[in-house]
Write a structure and sequence with these properties.
CATH architecture of the largest domain: Orthogonal Bundle
Helix content: 40-55%
Strand order of the largest sheet: 5-7-8-11
Protein name: Chloride channel protein
Subcellular location: Endosome membrane; Membrane
InterPro entries: CBS_dom, CBS_dom_sf, Cl-channel_core, ClC
Keywords: Antiport, ATP-binding, CBS domain, Chloride, Endosome, Ion transport, Membrane, Nucleotide-binding, Repeat, Transmembrane, Transmembrane helix, Transport
Number of strands: 14
Strand content: 5-15%
GO molecular function: antiporter activity; ATP binding; voltage-gated chloride channel activity
Distance between the termini: 6 Å
Structural class: alpha/beta
Radius of gyration: 31 Å
Largest sheet: 4 strands, mixed
Shape: elongated
């Protein structure tokens, strides 16, 4: 979408026309109009002074004092839904660093400021880790309590969840550890008993009502206060980290509403998780805390380094996996990830994990609800079922992406999208009505994964562990031998099969609704159910047919050969990998969840297989698919450009288009430039020597031009519509009685990136990816021919891939 925001608008309207959120909380772009560091490097030959005046330059030529010798507030910032200029931002930071280094040699105070500047990055990481860890702990505790609230309440104190309520009871038996007199179901409170059909219907009704209430509050708060708080947030975070600006996406309101509604959405029982949205929450913390430090507040590229570290913090607190979080940020979301950011991400993730561990939200000294430890080794032949789980994960991932994108596209293009509240309530009602009868869908998804990962022991009372008793001598290890499945296990298998179908279908329509919704936990639940089913099947096969060739030699009677919980874990990794296409970071996250080094090979085999199978069925992961669906300008580094086109095939103007809109360096008046701005919607204009020669001088941003002209009208006496605008170093003598000219050389980029018209497009695409360019000018023998923007490249790539080029909405 071309930028139409500043046609004929005054600088004052830019300031006053936005709310506080729009002014401050921008995903990278802070319209801090008191800023003085947003000004490009100035002509250092000139003296300072903001008023118009003339002095004698070399050879007696009058030299106009540059209006921009004094910084103009707003110059160097960016419009909403636009891409930052990475080259300019990095250049600004180098200039700032060079100035600090030079001054540090002059005085002790300057040296202390230099040390403070160097330390500020680490201090910021500490604050981000503390804030994100504390919020994650609060979200975990609140979601656990509100999930249990759907089933009953604690008489000792309504703020206790079921588990904490029964901890304090002296009348709880080991066999019925979930039942205690202090915890009352809604049926017990309302009708006085928990037995009989009427009590069941009452509990059913209360479960559905609470679910509807929580989801209604979540979608209403999102719609009323922070529309950007919906969804996972990871597709937008990826786009923001690539340099795109979404104003308000990482703001105070978004953080506040996302934190509250995330608890409500998870507690409602919808098939979603909190892990993806926690990345968004952590990035909001990073963006808000950036405002405490000048070098991050005023530089978009530096801010994105902080946001990359914040993404690592989000995964660290979501899974209790600091190293996995750093690798997730590096592999999945970050666009620019220098070594310094790697160290700082590691430190921030460590602080966040330590903070969450101090809060101890689950009361088990673990950072996640489904932490598990396995004790039995795996056998080489088990790689076959592990690879089968990888194939299932890849097929499920490809199916889910296609189905979910088709549903989301339907939501965008039909009337369904006009009723977000109704959609959420209908999906919640269907989920609650179908989930309650099945104990495995009624419990929270995190508890379900915990139960599926569990390695059955003697003290387990779960249906999944209710094997037939066989008199065996218990080995010295903690593992129990394989045993025949009892009636409860077979019942659990049927319930899990129904839960698998239910989760696979309901997650497709849930992800993308107007509530915070993560995809990690639902995907892991689908894989964990499939893995547990396969694991129990393998276990029973080994028990009854231990004399088969595949089991002979390693699975003797009375031995613990198969661990169904391990299969659940491998299945969870396979399905999550199939949906997101994560590999290295996913294996490390799962390894940190289990603490078992020996299970890395099964995890690697399943994860790699799921990625291969999913890539064979569709190249995009779920986040890339949603980025494309929303039309964000994201140049995917994993996507190869293999077409033999040239820069002249992509550049604008095309042969049928009007000529390129340019500004001459010394021949246009203020009125002519303002007219050009009003008649076009381009983000910037090339500056040429003259219309006849078309020799390139530089490039000027539309926003900088608007602000500078408006500022000159206010601060410089005599500037009128007839005043000439000069981008030259020296101003030629003006006719007598002519209005004072306006010199804007300081806002011009004197070294814009250029390519020739015969440059291969694969090289141009590489330049845009690696340098983070917004636009590139096309020349022939030094004459300007046209311009290529990021949007032009994305449209061209879409056209080459037989997709709709008009789906790219932003530049």
């Amino acid at each position: 979408m071309d930028n139409t925001g500043y046609c004929g608008e005054s600088f004052n309207s830019l300031q006053s026309g936005t709310s506080d959120e729009d002014m401050v909380e921008i995903a990278g772009a802070t319209l801090d109009f008191s800023s003085t560091d947003d000004v490009p490097p100035l002509d250092r030959d000139y003296g300072s002074g903001g008023s118009y005046g003339v002095s004698n330059g070399p050879n007696g030529i009058p030299k106009l004092m540059d209006l921009l010798d004094e910084p103009v507030p707003g110059v160097g910032t960016y419009e909403d839904f636009n891409t930052i200029d990475w080259v300019r931002e990095k250049s600004k930071d180098r200039d700032r660093h060079r100035e600090i280094a030079t001054k540090s040699k002059e005085s002790t105070l300057a040296l202390m400021k230099s040390i403070s500047d160097a330390f500020s990055g680490w201090l910021l990481m500490l604050l981000v880790g503390l804030m994100a860890g504390a919020l994650a702990g609060g979200i975990d505790i609140s979601a656990h309590w509100m999930t249990d609230l759907k089933e009953g309440v604690c008489l000792n104190g309504f703020w206790f969840n079921h588990e904490h309520c029964c901890w304090n009871s002296n009348e709880t038996t080991f066999q019925e550890r979930d039942k205690c007199p202090n915890w009352k179901s809604w049926a017990e409170l309302i009708v006085g008993t928990n037995d009989g059909p009427f009590a069941y219907i009452m509990n059913y009704l209360m479960y559905v009502c609470w679910a509807l209430l929580f989801s209604f509050l979540a979608v209403s708060l999102v719609r009323a206060f922070a529309p950007y708080a919906c969804g996972s947030g990871i597709p937008e975070i990826k786009t923001i980290l690539s340099g795109f600006i979404i104003r308000g996406y990482l703001g105070k309101w978004t953080l506040m509403i996302k934190t509250i509604t995330l608890v409500l959405a998870v507690s409602s029982g919808l098939s979603l998780g909190k892990e993806g949205p926690l990345v968004h929450v952590a990035c909001c913390c990073g963006n808000i805390l950036c405002h405490l430090f000048t070098k991050y507040r005023r530089n978009e590229a530096k801010r994105r380094e902080v946001l990359s570290a914040a993404a690592a913090v989000g995964v660290s607190v979501a899974f209790g996996a600091p190293i996995g979080g750093v690798l997730f940020s590096l592999e999945e979301v970050s666009y620019y990830f220098p070594l310094k950011t790697l160290w700082r991400s590691f430190f921030a993730a460590l602080v966040a994990a330590f903070t969450l561990r101090s809060i101890n939200p689950f009361g088990n000294s673990r950072l996640v609800l489904f932490y598990v430890e396995f004790h039995s080794p795996w056998h080489l032949l088990e790689l076959i079922p592990f690879i089968l789980l990888g194939i299932f994960g890849g097929i499920w991932g490809a199916f889910f992406i296609r189905a979910n994108i088709a549903w989301c596209r339907r939501r965008k293009t039909t009337r369904l999208g006009h009723y977000p509240v109704l959609e959420v309530l209908v999906v919640t009602a269907v989920t609650a009505l179908l989930a309650f009868p099945n104990s495995y869908t009624r419990m929270s998804t995190s508890e379900l994964i915990s139960e599926l990962f569990n390695d059955c022991g003697l003290l387990d009372s779960s249906q999944l562990c209710n094997y037939a008793n066989v008199s065996v001598t218990k080995s010295s290890s903690d593992a129990l031998p394989d045993r025949p499945a009892g009636h409860d296990v077979y019942t659990a298998m049927w319930q899990l099969s129904l839960a698998l179908i239910f989760k696979m279908l309901i997650t497709v329509v849930t992800f993308g609704m107007k509530v915070p919704s993560g995809l990690f936990i639902p995907s892991m639940a689908v894989g964990a159910i499939a893995g547990r089913l396969l694991g129990v099947g393998m276990e029973q096969l080994a028990y009854y047919h231990h004399d088969w060739a595949i089991f002979r030699g390693w699975c003797s009677p009375g031995a613990d050969c198969i661990t169904p919980g391990l299969y659940a874990m491998v299945g969870a990794a396979a399905c999550l990998g199939g949906v997101t296409r994560m590999t290295v970071s996913l294996v490390v996250i799962m390894f940190e969840l289990t603490g078992g080094l020996e299970y890395i090979v099964p995890l690697m085999a399943a994860t790699m297989t799921s990625k291969w199978v999913a890539d064979a069925l569709g190249r995009e992961g779920i986040y890339e698919a949603h980025i494309r669906l929303n039309g964000y300008p994201f140049l995917e580094s994993k996507e190869e450009f293999s077409h033999k086109t040239l820069a002249m095939d992509v550049m604008r103007p095309r042969r049928s288009d009007p000529p390129l809109s340019v500004i001459t360096q010394d021949g246009m008046s203020v009125e002519e430039v303002e007219s050009l701005i009003a008649e076009t919607s381009y983000s910037g204009f090339p500056v040429v020597v003259s219309h006849e020669s078309q020799r390139l001088v530089g490039f000027v941003q539309r926003r900088d031009l608007v602000i500078s002209i408006e500022n000159a009208r206010q601060r410089q006496e005599g500037v009128v519509s007839a005043s000439r605008i000069f981008f030259t170093e020296y101003t030629p003598p003006q006719p007598p009685n002519s209005p004072p000219p306006l010199k804007l050389r300081g806002i011009m980029d004197l070294s814009p990136f250029t390519v020739t018209d015969h440059t291969a497009m694969d090289i141009v695409v590489d330049i845009f990816r690696k340098l983070g360019l917004r636009q590139c000018l096309v020349t022939h023998n030094g004459r300007l021919l046209g311009i290529i923007t990021k949007k032009d490249i994305l449209k061209h790539m879409a056209q080459m891939a037989n997709r709709d080029p008009d789906s790219i909405l932003f530049n």
